[in-house]
Each structure stands twice: as C-alpha cells, then as structure tokens.
Write a structure and sequence with these properties.
- It is a single chain.
- The protein has 133 residues and is α+β, with helices and mostly antiparallel strands.
- It has a domain at 2-93: Nuclear Transport Factor 2, Chain: A (Roll), CATH 3.10.450.
- Helix content is 32%, strand content 23%.
- The chain has 6 helices and 8 strands; from the N terminus they run βααβββαββαβαβα.
- The chain has helices at 6-20, 24-28, 49-55, 86-89, 103-107, 122-127, and strands at 2-3, 29-30, 33-40, 43-48, 68-73, 79-81, 98-99, 116-117.
- The strands form 2 sheets. Strands 1, 2, 3, 4, 5 and 6 form a 6-stranded antiparallel β-sheet that branches. A two-stranded antiparallel ribbon has the order 7-8.
- The chain is elongated.
- Pfam families: pre-PUA_NIP7.
- InterPro entries: NIP7_N, Nip7_N_euk, PUA-like_sf, UPF0113_PUA.
Length: 133
C-alpha cells in the first residue's frame, strides 16, 4: 500500500470533484481525524491515518484491503469510482450521475430518453463483488 503519485491524485480528485465540488477538502480534514487515500493493487482506499499506522505492521502481500475502496485505476490510467464510495460522497454530493439533458429538456423529453448517465449502482456492486477485494 503506497501513497498516490501526483498524477494519480490529480486524476482521482478531478473525478471526485465532478460530484462534490470544493467539498473534497472535507473528505481529508474531518473532525474525527485525518483521512488519506492509499493505492493497493490499482484500487484506491480511503483510510484514517490512525488505521494506516496500525496496518504498517502487515506485509503488503498479506494485506487484502484497508479502509473503504473508493475506486480503481483502469489499465488506461482512468479513475473509476466504486459504489462503496457513495456513503462518503453522498453528504457532499450535488448528485451521483451526470446529466445528459438540461432541466428544460427533461420536462418535455420522451419517457424512454436518457436523462442521466449511469455512474454506479448497488447491482453493480453485487455483480462484481468477487473482484472488489
């Protein structure tokens, strides 16, 4: 488990900022302690520094996961959020999806038209549970 590089941090923060904007700082500096992001097997984990210090005694190859999985980096180095991050993003989120149409267009759109692009769902979590280690 290692800290994210500058490039990885930038890519991840840009993705998270699409949903929670400037509230991103509130994820790191919380009143109940300081939290950080760590990379392990191409997955980004959100973990308290207190827990991170305790896990330092565990060998990297023996460590399965630590904290909450926020997402993963694809082979093309894009960051994809996991639904497990939703509990942490929801209090600060402007909405967990990307609008495909404006509000005015949504009022007069065909019932089968795409209004919001899918980001994650609980079914996705269940379908890919074995790969979320």
């Amino acid at each position: 488990m290692r800290p994210l590089t500058e490039e990885e941090t930038r890519v991840m923060f840009e993705k998270i900022a699409k949903y929670i904007g400037e509230n991103l700082q509130l994820l790191v500096d919380r009143p109940d302690g300081t939290y950080c992001f760590r990379l392990h097997n191409d997955r980004v984990y959100y973990v308290s520094e207190k827990m991170l210090k305790l896990a330092a005694n565990i060998a990297g190859d023996k460590l399965v996961s630590l904290g909450t999985c926020f997402g993963k980096f694809t082979k093309t180095h894009k960051f994809r959020l996991h639904v497990t991050a939703l509990d942490y993003l929801a209090p600060y989120a402007k909405g967990f999806g990307v609008a495909a149409k404006s509000t005015q267009d949504c009022r007069k759109v065909d019932p089968m038209a795409i209004v919001v692009f899918h980001q994650a769902d609980i079914g996705e979590y269940i379908r890919h549970e074995e790969t979320l280690t």
